[in-house]
Structure formats: structure tokens, C-alpha cells
Design brief:
Blueprint: E1 7-9, E2 12-19, E3 30-35, E4 41-42, E5 46-48, E6 54-61, E7 76-83, E8 86-93, E9 98-100, E10 105-109, E11 113-116, E12 121-130, E13 138-143, E14 149-151, E15 159-161, E16 167-174, E17 181-191, E18 196-199, E19 203-207
Parallel strand pairs: 1-9, 11-19
Antiparallel strand pairs: 2-6, 3-5, 3-7, 4-6, 7-8, 10-12, 12-16, 13-15, 13-17, 14-16, 17-18, 17-19
Length: about 210
């Protein structure tokens, strides 16, 4: 979690990656939540799975979001874990998020949640809006999927929306051993040349038997 103040596209999102440093052999799950979200901003609570080091979610600013007043408390990432029956809490403080006008891309998903069974597949339609005269191809990335869940049909250049298209269906597969859970993930498009990320709202993955 970066302590710098994030710039968030109005009506869009940016990916936030959270990494934990595990000490003393603790390998269990870690609950993480972004607190002090100003009005108009949203980010889902999530968790880093047992044995894993990181996850990702979207920090999203609604179309009516504005820059928070100067006295607004800064963003705070709170991590919680239960170790030997005792709750351990760690916090990381960030800056105030800043709203910026939409860039060359706006990303959206057709659904806010996806349900998948272990050993099965699910599909999610991703759409983009090109802005400011941008006409190029657009790579799509999916971050924050739990261990054992992955995107299929990734070509040599990744998942691409060609210059002629504005949407792409993404296939998601869960290994047979994945346990039931609910876990948010983030879909984003990348503006090549400017190296900017344009995330959609977080999507909730439901793994159900």
C-alpha cells in the first residue's frame, strides 16, 4: 500500500495493491480494509489468503466525487489477523485521494459480481470508452483474483481489445481445489504510451460449491 496520495479518475478507478510482510512463521489470512474514504469514493474490504503475500482492489470515485476538504482524515489501510487467539492490527496511513478528470479510457464491467464453481468457468464482459481522440488498442488486466483462480485464453500479448472493438469477454477458471469464498478483484485497462491504468469498480468473485 503506497503512502502517497492517489489520483483517481472521476467516474473510474485505480488499482490498489496491498502486500504483507509475514513474520514469525504466520501464514494465515489477513483481513484488509481501506478506511476514511471521503464521500463519493468506494473500495471493498478484502483479505489476503493464507499463504499468500498480496491482493488488489479498486479505489473508485463516483461521477459526483470531488476533492475532499483539506481537514479530511487521510486514507488508512487497516490489516487484521488472529494469531494464537489474539487479534493483531496493523495500520498504514496514506494521503488524501485526489479526483482527476477521466483520461483517455473509461473501463466498466457488465456485472458487479461473478459466481464460479471449483473446477468451473465464468465469463465477464469488459467494455471500454475511448476518450480524447484515442483510437489505439487496449490491453486488459485482471488483478486480485484468489490463489487457484485465473484468467484463461491469455495470448502472447495478454488480453487485448483491438482498435476496432470496445469490449471483450474474459473467461475466469477456478481450480477444483479452490474453497468457497467471496473475494473482490479488479479489472483495468491500460493506456499504452502514457502507461496509465484505468480500473472499473471492483467485482465480487463468489466461489460456490
Amino acid at each position: 500500500f503506497s503512502p502517497t496520495a492517489p489520483s483517481v479518475w472521476k467516474g473510474g478507478g485505480v488499482p490498489v495493491t496491498v502486500t504483507v510482510n509475514r513474520v514469525d512463521g504466520y501464514a494465515g489470512p489477513v483481513q484488509v480494509k481501506l478506511e476514511n474514504l471521503p464521500a463519493g469514493f468506494e473500495a471493498p474490504p478484502t483479505f489476503i489468503e493464507a499463504g499468500q503475500q498480496s491482493t488488489a482492489f479498486a479505489l473508485y470515485a463516483g461521477p459526483m466525487a470531488g476533492n475532499p476538504p483539506p481537514m479530511t482524515p487521510p486514507l488508512k489501510l487497516v490489516a487484521r489477523a488472529t494469531i494464537d487467539g489474539k487479534e493483531i492490527v496493523r495500520e498504514a496511513t496514506g494521503g488524501l485521494p485526489k479526483v482527476v478528470e477521466p483520461g483517455d479510457l473509461v473501463t466498466a464491467t457488465a456485472a458487479g459480481e461473478v459466481t464460479i464453481r471449483p473446477g468451473g468457468e465464468a465469463r465477464l464482459k469488459v467494455s471500454i470508452e475511448r476518450r480524447n481522440g484515442f483510437k489505439g488498442r487496449v490491453p486488459i488486466e485482471v488483478k486480485g483474483l484468489p490463489h487457484g483462480v485465473r484468467v484463461l485464453d491469455i495470448g502472447l500479448n495478454g488480453i487485448l481489445i483491438t482498435e476496432r472493438d470496445t469490449e471483450r469477454e474474459v473467461a475466469i477458471y477456478a481450480e477444483p481445489w479452490v474453497t468457497p469464498m467471496e473475494h473482490p478483484f479488479v479489472v483495468l485497462s491500460k493506456r499504452e504510451g502514457k502507461n496509465t491504468d484505468h480500473a472499473a469498480r471492483s467485482v465480487l468473485l463468489r466461489v460456490q460449491k
